[in-house]
Structures are given as C-alpha cells and as structure tokens.
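Could you join me in thinking about how sequence relates to backbone shape in a protein? Would you write everything just below, so we can both look at the same thing?
***
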Amino acid sequence: MNLKRLFRHLTTSPWRVQRCFPRQTLTAIGQAVSHSEHQHSGELRFVVEGPLPLGRVLRDVSARERAIELFSRLRVWDTAENSGILIYVQLADREVEIVADRGIVASVPQAFWDDLCRDMERAFAGGDYQGGVLTTITKAGAALTTHFPAQAGNPNELPDSPLVL
C-alpha cells in the first residue's frame, strides 16, 4: 500500500471538488456535452471524483481501473451504437482517464484518448479546470462527428450533466 496515496485520499475533501468544479463550471460542462451530442451519435459522460472510497484506495485501485468500473456501473457501454465515452477525473491522484466503448475503439486509436487525458491534466495543473474539460469535449466531439455522424432522431441515451462523486 502506498502511504502517500492513502494520505492524499484521506485529506482530499469534497470542498476541493467544489473549488475546482463550481456549479457554473459543471453547468458549462453539461451544456458542452449536450451541444457536442447534437453533432454526432456518440454519448459522452463526465465524472469527477475527489477521493476514492477508502476500500478502493486500500486495494490500490488505479484511476484507470476506477474509470472502467464507473463505465460499467453507469452503463456507458449500453448505447445503441456502442459509442459511449466516459471522461473520468480523479482529483486526489490528479489523473484523467477516458474509456471509450468498443464501437469507438474500432475507429479511434487509444493514443488519441490518452493524448486528450494528458492535455487535460496539463490544463488542470495550470488551474484551468473548465477550459481543460471543455477543450477535451470539443476534441472528443470532433472525433465522434467524423466516425459517428448524427443520425435523424438521434436519441440522448445518457445524462448530459456531470456526475460528482
């Protein structure tokens, strides 16, 4: 067990999420997701989590493992075209993960999503949480528009509003 990591998670309070992602930022993210989804048939889900639950820290669950867990629990995989994307921010570890469904993985390489994650982490390191997320949503939306253009009667299969854990 990594004691430094345990300490970080024990001392990261919910107010940190509120400070980095205030209500107006969460509203802007939800609006950006909604706008993006009108351009393509993909589904975006944004989740930000302050500290991990203690049991997950003790089991040394990585940000990637947690993102995959949430991808499943939130049913991001359960879209008609297998075109769901989870953008996961783990504040205590200062890590970002993007998990794309199998329909997207077949068209867009993982390296693209990894680059978006690193770009967002750099924006966060500079204190630009809203800008980092909005830029990522725009770039993800552009990739989805190329490979999953909007169809007539494009349903909204997942909530657009960000989820704060």
Notes: The chain has one domain: 3-149+159-164. The chain has a mean pLDDT of 93. The first helix runs from residue 3 to 11. The beta strands are 43-49, 84-90, 95-100, 163-164.
